[in-house]
Specification:
The chain has about 600 residues and is of the alpha+beta class. The protein is about 55% helix and about 15% strand. It has 18 helices and 17 strands. It has a five-stranded antiparallel β-sheet.
Length: about 600
């Protein structure tokens, strides 16, 4: 009944195999979509945050570099102004009325030494200083080349602003430099009166290149110093192709003091940052490849998408394989079981798969082939079992015991001892009534004890030396045990214990319940057995039945094992009464509540797995 219902439920589940297959694929898609959306959103947020931080960091670094350039330019200008007020410099531009030739040479030497000293202090920013005396038409410089006084040159370049290049024809052969001319004309730096002192400060583009190289070594950009209309000053490892395209973009745009722009060059995104130098008027420009910097994030994003695509393909493929290799074979197996349930034992399952289901199909075919023969043999097995039971009971009914009891009753009747005849008849009737009942294979221990009492009372009537004690807990008397469990044990104690000697006659039956086991002890005060004999007898109980093995003990031991499990057994030992002790041990069966809990913890049958 239960198996039929389980098969019916399982059939309904398998019958919806295609819908389950579609649901599985739909579930895979539903699981993948939120993961992809969430990752795309988080990846976009991360990229935006990094992009913002990258722009902020880049503009800060450029501003710092621009402030360094402005700071060094301002230091140069401050020195020129201060230097123009030096007494020796003022003396150099004086009338020289009282100076002799030595004094003039000494003054020129001191001025030149101070300029060289200042340039040495700023060796990371070398500057060439030149002092022009308009009064005396002379010039002094710390430059490596000779400098001559040129009035037209001064008038052309004294503008009060930094200029890139000084307009000399011979300077075209040399790299351009930044120049600043300071005159002591108060309030008017772009005019000369004919007696002014002019201090020229100049530095070459190498100073800018050194700073650009240092900046590039600490980042991933490609910086340059840019002024529209002039050749840009590049770092020494600049990408010339990228720089040319960048200059074209810069020439086509108007720039503020601080600007940032995302541009695309050769299908790649770049971040252009520009900061204007307040002293020189040029722009410090840095171009940074955004795709290259954000490349690891993009690579991880693409790798995630590829991994998700592969997982999706693997999930769908696994679903298809699961359907083909599991659900379809199970459906075949269920159809075969349904046929067997209807009584068609000729059904066979054919399959071309080579996995665990092939073994199941083989076993199913073998099972259906054997079921018919098993069904045919069931009746014969039942008949043989009944015949064996009857033979067992017949073997246990000792005709000599019956004859002796009837003879005892005849003798007591002749002696007019009606009470002994009634007592023997009552016990003998109760004894054989219980012995011949075949409707139940088990009985309560209390019923078994009543049988033993009848048997011992019969023996006591025949042999006045016999006396017995029975001590069994009430809880133990309700236990169900195999019928005729105690009778062969007690009969052995009477015949081979008490009956072997005229000095013995005590039989003690005691029961205890401990550690989940029931134990019955049957003791007598007869001659007993040696330790070697006891050991042989105990080993015999664990072996197949032999011709010389006592059938009563072996049969009782086997029935205990069949009903209560392998933990149950008969154990023989010496009794503290001096004779033979038989210990009957069986494991307490689980109560209905314990059995229910056991099923919930893991011993649940498969039928319970098919929920409605």
């Amino acid at each position: 009944m239960k198996s039929g219902r389980a098969i019916s439920i399982f059939r309904r589940n398998i019958g919806s195999g295609m819908s389950l297959f579609a649901k599985t694929n739909g579930l895979i898609i539903i699981l993948f979509i939120p993961v992809i959306i969430f990752f795309t959103y988080s990846n976009g947020v991360s990229s935006n945050v990094i992009n913002k931080e990258l722009k902020a960091s880049n503009i800060k670094q450029l501003s710092f570099l621009s402030s360094q350039i402005d700071s060094r330019v301002n230091q140069t200008m401050d020195f020129a102004v201060t230097f123009s007020r030096d007494p020796n410099v003022r003396k150099f531009n004086g009338l020289k009325i009282w100076d002799d030739r030595y004094d003039r040479m000494q003054t020129r030497y001191i001025i030149q030494e101070k300029m060289m000293l200042q340039s040495g202090v700023m060796n990371i920013w070398p500057v060439e200083f030149t002092v022009y005396s308009q009064q005396n038409k002379e010039a002094i410089s710390n430059a490596a080349t000779m400098v001559n006084y040129d009035e037209d040159y001064l008038k052309k370049n004294v503008t009060g602003k930094w200029a890139y290049g000084d307009g000399r024809e011979d300077a075209q052969q040399l790299p351009k430099a930044f120049h600043w001319f300071y005159s002591d004309s108060f309030g008017q730096q772009d005019a000369l009166r004919g007696s002014n002192l002019v201090v020229k400060s100049s530095f070459r583009q190498e100073n800018i290149q050194n700073l650009l190289d240092t900046y590039k070594a600490g980042g991933q950009g490609d910086p340059m110093f840019y002024q529209k209309g002039e050749a840009p000053i590049l770092n020494r490892s600049a990408d010339m192709g990228l720089t040319d395209k960048l200059v074209q973009l810069l020439d086509a745009r108007s720039w503020e003091n601080t600007m940032q722009k995302d541009v695309e060059i050769d299908n790649q995104r770049y971040l252009i940052s520009a900061v204007r130098s307040l002293s020189l008027g040029w722009y410090l420009v840095d171009i940074m490849p955004i795709d290259q910097i954000l490349g690891p994030i993009s690579a991880s994003r693409n790798l995630f998408y590829v991994a998700m695509a592969l997982l999706f393909v693997v999930g769908i493929s696994s679903s298809v394989l699961l359907y083909r290799n599991v659900q379809i074979p199970i459906r075949k197996l269920i159809h075969g079981l349904q046929s067997v349930q209807r009584g068609d034992f000729s059904v066979r399952i054919s399959s071309n798969i080579n996995n665990e289901f092939a073994f199941l199909f083989y076993r199913f075919n073998d099972m259906s082939q054997q079921i018919q023969s098993l069904i045919e043999n069931v009746l014969n097995e039942k008949l043989r079992a009944r015949e064996a039971t009857l033979k067992q009971l017949q073997a246990q009914i000792n005709p000599h015991f019956l004859y002796n009891c009837i003879g005892y009753m005849i003798n007591m009747a002749q002696m007019k001892d009606e009470e002994a005849v009634v007592s023997m008849g009552h016990n003998l009737s109760a004894y054989y009534r219980y012995m011949t009942r075949l409707e139940r294979p088990t009985a309560s221990l209390n019923e078994e004890i009543q049988l033993i009492i009848n048997y011992l009372d019969i023996q006591k009537l025949r042999n006045g030396r016999i006396h017995y004690t029975i001590d069994i807990p009430e809880a133990m008397l309700s236990q169900q045990v195999p019928r005729l469990l105690l009778q062969p044990i007690v009969e052995n104690a009477v015949i081979h214990g008490v009956g072997k000697t005229y000095s013995s006659g005590e039989i003690r039956i005691k029961g205890v319940m401990t550690g989940g086991f029931c134990k019955l002890y049957v003791d007598d005060d007869g001659p007993g057995m040696t330790e070697e004999q006891l050991s042989v007898l105990n080993r015999t109980m664990k072996q197949p039945l032999q011709d010389d093995t006592g059938y009563g003990f072996w049969n009782t031991n086997q029935r205990l094992i069949h009903q209560f499990g392998d933990q149950s057994q008969l154990v023989f030992s010496q009794s503290d009464l001096g004779g033979f002790q038989t210990e009957i041990v069986w494991e307490l069966p689980l109560s209905p509540i314990q059995n229910h809990h056991s099923q919930q913890k893991g011993e649940i049958s498969y039928a319970n797995d098919h929920r409605r």
